[in-house]
């Protein structure tokens, strides 16, 4: 019923772009959903132009019917697994991942399951992933508590980014060694940060020396957008392509001390089959995949 749910949201927003931002899917995908529905129904349900989108008479009638059908379907699902949906799912998450990934994932889950209740906590103070305070943790590290399950959710792929105006005024960067001439923006929790670049089985370790450190990826991203220097940022964090560009994109890069970092989903073993947790994680994986293209 995914196409039908997307159609109802289009009817509400009257904009493919707004729906794309809400659901975290491309406008092209939304257009394909509409085309598929119109082919199944053998009629036009949307009147589309370059400036506006409106429901046709057939579209209005179809939207009413779909809304009733989905309400009945959601009530049926709730009657089977209502106990889970009556509870609040408490999620504790890495701030950047929460802001850019989990919000979109939770929005999609709640549109499919209107009765689902979710509390999302994102802060710089990292709570230990232990059973009790939260039902689901999103962390870079594996849990120490043996009562907790952990599953890889996404690779924290990094890229080197800089502001276009900064690059115009600075020395050119043709290979990793050129970076030593630049202002490298680094993470506050890493002392003497070193960036490791790899290409064609060759490796370069470059000291990240500069005048600014920050406590998280979002702050470093803001600094890059302010033309302050170079920084390693997760590829899933949005960047304004008019202002920022990726540097040395043909190289893989990581922070040397971190090796390969994986974002884990951590939750109690007794919640192994919890449908709400599994649904949130499935949507989060989808959002990450869409952002990585």
Helices and strands, with pairings:
Blueprint: H1 2-13, H2 16-23, H3 27-41, E1 46-48, E2 53-55, H4 57-86, E3 88-93, H5 95-112, E4 117-122, E5 136-139, E6 148-155, E7 158-163, H6 164-169, E8 184-187, E9 194-199, E10 202-207, E11 213-214, H7 217-225, E12 230-234, E13 244-247, E14 252-255, E15 262-268, H8 275-292
Parallel strand pairs: 3-4, 3-5, 8-11, 8-12
Antiparallel strand pairs: 1-2, 5-15, 6-15, 7-12, 7-13, 9-10, 9-14
Name a few traits of the molecule.
single chain, 293 residues, alpha/beta, Arc Repressor Mutant, subunit A, D-Maltodextrin-Binding Protein, domain 2, 3 domains, five-stranded mixed sheet, 8 helices, 40% helix, 25% strand, flat
Written description of the protein model:
With 293 residues, the protein is of the alpha/beta class. The chain has 3 domains: 2-80, Orthogonal Bundle (Arc Repressor Mutant, subunit A), CATH 1.10.10.10; 87-156 and 261-292, 3-Layer(aba) Sandwich (D-Maltodextrin-Binding Protein, domain 2); 158-258, D-Maltodextrin-Binding Protein, domain 2, CATH 3.40.190. It is built from 8 helices and 15 strands. Strand 9 and strand 10 (202-207) form a beta hairpin. Helix 5 (95-112) packs across helix 8. The longest helix is centred in the first third of the chain and has 30 residues, at 57-86. The mean pLDDT is 87.
